[in-house]
Write a structure and sequence with these properties.
The structure is a single chain. This protein is mostly helical. It has six helices and no strands.
């Protein structure tokens, strides 16, 4: 009678997949406690409840996988074996994830506690030695000013370097231009050709200017 009411393979797999999805959702919530920059000294109720729910889901999934294993022994199937292997792998991965997040949260809480202790000790020391606190403040201000001056010097150095490069490029262009002019002067007839081209351009300019002036006079006459 018990065997007739036992859940079948499909039902067991459906329950397993549902619990896996719930575990993923809880991991998303639980991971936020590890990345919290202001983690509290002690676990909150939400943190403890989330961790407990994840642990419970892992135990339920382990029980379901055992039932799937028993079911597979009675009805062997390669496809079912692959599905079972996948569920086991996912359970193992989630178990490791829970352990890793626990360690990360614990380390974050220890660092926060240590930092709080150091700050408290420094504050107590400054309260007992106000002269030292003022001197430390002046040293911090001096350090900030030195860093600002360093940035300004770096920017000026880069500007001077760029200006120097521009000067070098101008000198190079000047040398190239002088070489071209010198080379042109050594070629027979090149200077005359350049002169004729310049004269032709000036003549064309005079013709165009005269034509524009003529058109303007005609336009003013008919107005």
């Amino acid at each position: 009678m018990a065997s007739s009411t036992a859940p079948g393979w499909a039902q067991l797999r459906q329950q397993t997949r549902a619990l896996e999805a719930q575990t993923d959702t809880l991991f998303h919530t639980y991971s936020r406690f590890a990345s919290n920059p202001n983690i509290p000294p002690k676990p909150t109720d939400e943190e403890k409840n989330t961790e407990s729910q994840i642990q419970t889901l892992l135990e339920k999934r382990e029980s379901l996988i055992e039932q799937l294993t028993n079911h597979l022994t009675t009805t062997p199937s390669a496809l079912k074996q692959n599905n079972l292997t996948l569920h086991r792998s996912t359970l193992h991965e989630h178990t490791l994830t829970l352990s890793r997040l626990r360690s990360s949260i614990s380390e974050s809480r220890q660092r926060a506690k240590l930092l709080s202790t150091v700050r408290s000790d420094i504050s107590s020391y400054h309260s007992a030695n106000p002269e030292t606190a003022e001197a430390d403040y002046m040293l911090d201000e001096r350090s900030r000013l030195d860093r600002s001056h360093g940035v300004a010097d770096s920017v000026l150095s880069q500007a001077y370097a760029v200006n120097e490069q521009f000067g070098v490029q101008r000198e190079m262009l000047g040398n190239v231009q002088r070489r071209i002019v010198g080379a042109a002067g050594k070629v027979p007839g090149i200077n005359g050709l350049i002169g004729r081209i310049g004269a032709k351009k000036r003549r064309d300019g005079f013709i165009m200017a005269g034509f524009v002036a003529f058109c303007m006079l005609i336009f003013l006459y008919f107005m």
